[in-house]
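One chain given next:
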Amino acid sequence: MTIMKNDLQVALVKKAKKGDIRAFFQLCEAYQVVLYNSAYKLLQNNEDVADCLQETEIRAWEKIKKLKNDAAFNTWIFKIMINVAKTILKKRVDMIQYDDNDWSVVDKRYVGSDLETVFMYLPEKYKIPIVLHYYAGFDVKEIANQLDMPKNTVKTRLARGREKLKILLEGEWDGEKKY
């Protein structure tokens, strides 16, 4: 996945590491749309996406000096975004479980024909690789590096995620037809 020419990206990263906030903003703007789309696919909520992207940029700015490979800025900022999104999802799950029976109501409202609706039911371990591959354009090797897992695990999760999406889109949920 390359949105920005590599030499321009490296030059901007070097400037940002020296404290040039404008260079950092240029980097963030270059990846803003694909970060937003990917975060939205994971979080399915505009407010959470806005929080996620804001926190991603804050963390990236705070840690830019620690980036070892200037040419890998895009992979690095996506990894930050994924970690922030996971934290938001975990808080959401904790909140749902805290609210007693609200979590079971979600399953009862499921209608199995809309990809966006179905996608939110996909387990996180499948959702993240699918978003990174199909929406953000990363290849299997890049995803493996971002998620710190073997390439074969990424391939397996992509395949299983696609299969689970297919089952959900066909209207089966826990072996029971939903209408």
Observations:
- The mean pLDDT is 81.
- The two ends are 39 Å apart (CA to CA).
- The chain is about 75% helix and 0% strand.
- The longest helix spans residues 73-98.
